[in-house]
């Protein structure tokens, strides 16, 4: 009886192992086929590397394959850029966007994922340069100034950050729609520049623009926060 059980168990185990091997082989084959197909496609000047391609999910691979056929399709370029940054493939995203621009011309829609990738690699100076281009294209964009201000702060340019975020706030026709984050960033910059009284005034301005909604105990309690960023007291 024991002998029969052992043989039965051994047979079942072998069948399961064989099935798992087949399944694994199918998975490997599907990935290999996709990679082989990509490698055999006519390459564009900016195609991502085969190594990067092998790490992408199936839907992103399809975008890459379509871009090989439609190299200057702006919608596909935007989708691939977003997918690459979403997968933290920052170096690949930067290379793709820069080469796409060389081949197909400037595409402002790719500047946002380019900044994300540059920040992801802690290349804040390059991100600032990209955002300067955005500011030049959209000189009345509060968002562009604010984003550049945040990047400037990341690499220690507090004065530049202060000027940008100040512009970002005051280009809006309705300051009551501006989020607290912008006022807080400006107040922090002012305090770091040794202007704690101005920092407090900035947060007070935030409550003034929409006093009913913004004069909550939580917000009013934050008015003292900028003082932490300066050794001076009012």
Q: Which helices and strands, and how do they pair?
A:
Blueprint: H1 2-40, H2 50-55, H3 58-69, H4 74-86, H5 90-104, H6 111-120, H7 124-137, H8 142-154, H9 158-170, H10 180-192, H11 196-209, H12 211-214, H13 217-221
Helix pairs in contact: 3-4, 4-5, 4-6, 5-6, 6-7, 7-8, 8-9, 9-10, 10-11
Tell me about this structure.
It is a single chain. This protein has 234 residues and is mainly α. The protein has a domain of 109 residues. The protein contains 13 helices and no strands. Helix 8 packs antiparallel against helix 9. The longest helix is centred in the N-terminal third of the chain and has 39 residues. InterPro entries: TPR-like_helical_dom_sf.
Keywords:
single chain, 234 residues, mainly alpha, 13 helices, 0% strand, elongated, disordered N terminus, disordered C terminus, TPR-like_helical_dom_sf, transmembrane helix, transmembrane
Rg value: 27 Å
Structural class: mainly alpha
Question: Roughly what fraction of the amino acids lie in strands?
Answer: under 5%
What is the number of helical segments per DSSP (H or I, 4+ residues)? 13
Biggest sheet overview: none
Head-to-tail CA distance between termini: 91 Å
Summarize the helix and strand pattern as letters. Answer: HHHHHHHHHHHHH
Overall pLDDT, averaged? Answer: 78
Contiguous uncertain segments of 5+ residues: 1-11, 229-234
InterPro entries: TPR-like_helical_dom_sf
Transmembrane segments: 20-39
Keywords: Membrane, Transmembrane, Transmembrane helix
